Amino acid sequence: MATGGIHEDGLIMRSRIGVLAGVARPTVTSWARCPEFPSPVRAGEVELFHQAEVLAWLDNRIIPRRSLQTSERDGTTYGDRARRVISRQQASADPIPTVPSPPTRSDSADRQRVRELMGDMADRIRGAASEVDYMNLLLCLHFLRVAGGPQWDAVTRVVDAGHGLHGTGVLLDAIGRATDERLRRLGTVSGMRDALLRLEPRTYGDLRSVVRQVGQLGRGAFRYILDEYETRARLRSAEFFTPRAVARIMAEAASDGSGRPPETIHDPYARGGELLAGAVAACAARGGTPAGLYVHGFSHGRDTVQLASMNLALHGVRPRVRLTSGAPWAPKADAGAVAHCDLVLTNPPFNMSDSAGEARTHGTWPYGPPPVGNDNFAYLQHAVGLLGEGGSAAVVMPNKAGNSANRAEVEIRRNLLERGVVKCVIALPDRLFSSTPVPVSVWILVHPAQPCDEVLFLDARKLGARRRGKRVLGEEDVQAVLTAYRFAVPCVGAHTGREWDGGVVSALLPRNDLRTMDCSLSPTDRVEAARTPQEDADSALARTVHEADVRLRETHTTDAADTLRNLDFQPPHPTRPVALSELCDIKAGPSYSALRAEQRTPYGDVPLVFPKDLSEGRIAGPGERRVTAELASRLRSFRLEPGDIVCVRSGAVGPPALVREREAGWLMSTNVLRLRLRDGAPADPEYLLACLSRPEAVGWVRDRAASTGAPSISAKALGYQQVALPPYDEQRRLARMLAALEEQALAHSRAAAALLDLRAALTERMVSGC
């Protein structure tokens, strides 16, 4: 498909239409009254038109003989004339970036610098404006700097000029205007200037520092800024971005087996353009040329359209992402621009439950009308309908779509199988997206002219690691899915029920065998049913026998210490009550202003300790939230050392925990208190922990915390709690005795759990042998 000139799809005003067509303004006004004339898009009070649509309309309008210019023949159209004007002007136009060059900085360096930009400098720049406005500043600067051209040159001139007291406003205006102009030439309506002018930098030097720091980022840093944007913009379920790992799985799996790199790529629900960018990156990795791709999409948010356009431009393609408010299958003037695609990728909004609605009566649905009020299978059929012969699609669907009981959806699944459209369904973990915990699957679909005789099911639900409340797929997880996908396809039955390295389980089944279970296309159903019961039972039995043997040996070791027999029940030594404030320095965690929520990320260097991390006298973790080494250095008075005791300051009060060698250097969070024994204090940390963990001691703290508006206890109030303090040697003896009893109890608890697992595995083995 021809992609046209470099600025063919930009946004133009009526005056520009007159220049291209060589007519006066009243003529353009008259044309605009025609019903077939392209509809304008508004940017404030200004009406703009997509140049490609205007050219297509002008192609059908022949120039009257009396209006022909020199060298124009009879039959010349206004479209012909306009393209000659564009061709003459392109030599002086600034091009969009071509194939991206390698980043000049490492990924870790870029990630660290983005985190620094989101630190104290963010507050110094934004003032009363929103965090999103500040994020837009970073995105605009990075986009302009990497794209280069006269717009970035204009910004650097303003930076160097300074402009005195009013310099911040002048510089923000220059950055906003340059971005809006660049995006308009790419065909995107932008309002970045208005967003940036809401910022209130404290000094011109602060703003200039941000410009220069962004200028040191590598080309690939745009994605790290986007990650922060998604978090801070609190995007709704219809707007959140698709994780890069999921985008990569979709792009590479859908492209495999096509025999040639895609030329036309489309996303009918483009969000921030992350799937389109992933497809472009996958094409470039295979030796393709991004500049030769025709990349198109529809987005439902004005802000995300701007981000998508910048993202794609930085990947070396001309973005064609249009703002739309209706369903993508509704009739559109430019529908032909996205027909016969090589690759369709989309993550549409979906309904998560069974749909009770009746099948809709309007629309053309070759595989069956989807139910009213649920567009799951509408998007699925729309994606297949956009494919040309040899094309493939990847669609994110809720897991429920694979085995829903709705009659219309069962019939659609049956027809998809009959036509051989479904190639693969990949079940992914839950909590992959920022706004929903719902588990999803990726459906890989093909054009019905090349039907699949088998369907591959991959169960990858166990992959990923928890970070910041989400589950994140790493590079090894992506490779595990793609390896299972590529190597399970060639031979039906050979890999059925196999668990590949990395924890992905596969089942490759003939489509004629999938009419059971209401034509379920759920990997959960199909992979479990395809497993060999005898092999699974044997494997589980062997594993649990080994685990039980290990745990029983542990109990023998702890029992050999004869802890119970060595207990010394002699009368206790005299004790004296001592207030905690006499023994310890008690310090609360940093304030919310010193440790803000946005400074806690999964990518930091130093772990934070929160109340939820205190469990059974120990600190679990490290958790998902960390801070940078630079911030930890500034908050060094809140660091933890071995022998410290950490208590809950606010929230649900529970027993405290002892800091051990592993947690040395970790940082307190706002909601905890630290007890550190003073030099020369006659107390043992482990004995003190045992005293403070007693139900009576925990209740003492809970009662005083509950007396406040929100459950909380201050360092001063905690200091009044008293503990019974025998001589130091006696404390050490008691602490060792308690530790030995705890270890013996834990060993027996682990052994009991292992024996119960063995019992269940043995039962399963007996049943599977029937």
TrEMBL record:
The keyword Methyltransferase applies. It comes from the Bacteria. GO terms for molecular function: methyltransferase activity. Residues 578-743 form the Type I restriction modification DNA specificity domain. Keywords: DNA-binding, Methyltransferase, Restriction system, Transferase. Residues 71-83 have a biased composition (Basic and acidic residues). One of its GO terms (biological process) is methylation. Residues 69-111 are annotated as: Disordered. Residues 221-487 form the DNA methylase adenine-specific domain. Belongs to the type-I restriction system S methylase family. This is N-6 DNA methylase. It comes from Streptomyces lycii.
